[in-house]
Amino acid sequence: MTNNPITRPARHTKAIILSAGQGRRLLPLTESTPKCLLPVADKPVLAWQIDALLTVGIEEITIVAGFQVGLIETLLQQRYANHPKIKILFNPFFEVADNLASCWIARGEMTGDFLILNGDTVIEAALIAQVLNSKPAPITLSVDYKNAYDADDMKVQLDTDGWVKQVSKIIPPHQVDAESIGLIYFREQGPERFSQAVESALRHPAELKSWYLSIIDRLAKQHLVNSCSVKGFRWCEIDFIEDLAKAGIIFDENPS
Fold first, then answer.
1. Measured on CA atoms in the order 133, 139, 142, 147, is the torsion positive or negative?
2. Which among 105, 102, 140 has a CA at the least distance from the CA of 119?
3. DSSP secondary structure string, 97-161?
4. What pLDDT does residue 100 have?
5. Is 142 exposed, middle or buried, given 0-12, 13-18 or 19+ CB atoms closer than 10 A?
């Protein structure tokens, strides 16, 4: 657990959480429950995310939902009724498209400084604060490091100054320097460049099956994407059932 003091961003920042998918790799747990509502240490993944964002002073939060959107609406009513700036945008394409389409749904929110957070990444508030206080860049990719990366990791290649050269699951092992954890910060011209790229990409039907990180990869080629290390901070991506147990251990607030 980190003990760094949490400092709030000097600039107004919004957050967009991409939570439209079902999470089929977690079946049968997601048969009727979206992945973002699965419990980690007795609290839904989405609640961990919202609570962390609120802790660092981000109150304007947009959740892009799809599968079982009514359950997510219920969670907001039960836990966040006193936070009127938390809202849902419905993605009707969640069955046929990947998360680039969710970004398209939320493109109207991509003004000023904002974060994009994958709906399956549990994070602590101190990690978000680390990213918010990173050195200025149009786009900042949150990255962590480990000794070896598996096929499902979103791999990142960096230059010697920490700027992102490419981000993809298929980067050759000898070129991999880090992994993306699913949290990106947009500032300066980053919001406009990203939203324009999303709009342009989805004019091509084949892009419906694309991840939004394919856009980040293209923008990295234009030297627009820096990295921010979150090594040592708590986070866990929930892809498989065993990840829930791992996240429960990492985020257990009452360990025995």
1. negative
2. 102
3. --HHHHHHHTGGG-SSEEEEEETTEEE-HHHHHHHHTSPP-SEEEEEE--S---TTS-EEEE-TT
4. 83
5. buried
Contact 72, 65 (CB under 8 A): yes
User: How many Cβ atoms sit within 10 Å of the Cβ of residue 146?
Assistant: 10
Q: What is the mean pLDDT of residues 34-45?
A: 91
Which domain covers residue 242, as residue numbers? Answer: 13-250
Of 54, 61, 123, 48, the closest CA to residue 89 belongs to 61
pLDDT digits 0-9 by tens, 94-130: 876 777 888 989 999 999 999 999 999 999 999 999 9
Q: Tell me which amino acid residue 253 is.
A: E
Residue 2: predicted pLDDT: 47
CA separation for the pair 115, 128 (Å, rounded): 9
Whether 6 maps to a domain, the answer reads no
Radius of gyration of the chain (CA): 17
Query: Is residue 216 assigned to a domain?
Result: yes
Among 166, 167, 173, 129, smallest CA distance to 150 is for 173
CATH number, domain with residue 174: 3.90.550.10
Query: Considering the domain boundaries, does residue 223 fall inside one?
Result: yes
155/243 Cα distance (integer angstroms): 18
- Whether residue 5 is contained in a domain is answered as no
Q: Cα–Cα distances in Å, from 82 out to 16, 219, 221? A: 19, 38, 42
248 vs 80, higher pLDDT: 80
Residue 22, by phi and psi: left (phi above 0), alpha (psi -120 to 50) or beta? alpha
Alpha carbons 175 and 157: distance in angstroms, whole number:
6
Q: Provide the domain count of the chain.
A: 1
The pLDDT score that the predictor gives to residue 241 is 87
